[in-house]
Amino acid sequence: MNFRTGLAVGAGGFLAAHAAGRFGRRIVDRVIARYEAKLERAVRRLAARAEFGGPLAKAALAGARALYEGKSPARALLSAGWTALKETLKRLFGGGRRGGLTNIVEQIDVGAPCRLVYDQWTRFEDFPSFMKKVVSVDQASEQKLNWKAKIFWSSRSWQSTIVEQVPDRHIVWRSKAAKGRVDGTVSFHELAPELTRVLLVLEYRPGGLFERTGNLWRAQGRRVRLELKHFRRHVMTRSLTAPAEVEGWRGEIHDGEVVRAP
Predict the structure, then answer these.
(1) What is residue 163's three-state secondary structure?
(2) How far apart are CA 245 and CA 135, in angstroms?
(3) Nearest to residue 188, comparing CAs of 197, 179, 200, 180?
């Protein structure tokens, strides 16, 4: 091969490589443009959802916007985390429904007679022996109960007043405390001679920092569900084995007054 032929071959290879490079760049540009279009649509969707969403939705939007603006995944993750923190604090300290009401409705079926289930429930001072978060219950009178329970690593105390109580049917109470309160109703429904449904309806008004944090993530509803399971296990393993020893309070209360003693 002479010099001219070698030069021609080299030039052809260079042009081919240049053309291949341009073709490759066009493919890369198309992929990037497609990715940016998808990301832009995702940002628009997240923006629409975040308008009515909570801290997590707004955090996801912040992360997607950071990626769309060309920031690294690490910076995008940092933006999402910071936004989640800010939105959470905003809800806790005035940006959301401070002290708002949360309704909690839970039910559980217990394989025991309705009378036995009701009687065991009225033994409030037994609650700490089988409920994980109840520290103590002091029944000052037929209507008044003083409670102490754990909230995260802290503890809370409150007083509840029974305003309505009908044996084997329902108990209605109101409560007061420095940090949040829980009003509610528990009712008992005989499904069969040896099967009772317990229906618990609570109105939870968080007051302190820990309570509002727990309320934000619906932690209290999960705790109620778990405590009901502890109650069922206690009835099935303890109360049923010695029903004669379960002496419940069989009186009747209306408008906060005892109208029929047991």
Answers:
(1) strand
(2) 23
(3) 197
Phi and psi, residue 141, nearest 5°: -155, -175
Residue with tokens 């308008």: 51
Q: Which helix (H) or strand (E) holds 127?
A: helix 127-130
C-alpha to C-alpha distances, 64 to 59, 76, 78, 83, nearest whole angstrom: 9, 7, 11, 12
DSSP 243: G
In order along the chain (262 residues), what is the average pLDDT of each group of 10 residues? 50 53 67 62 56 57 64 66 56 45 89 98 96 93 92 79 97 86 92 96 71 55 90 97 95 95 86
The reported pTM is 0.61
**HSE-up (13 A, CA, CB side) for residue 2:** 1
The two three-digit tokens of residue 97, written as one number: 């429904």
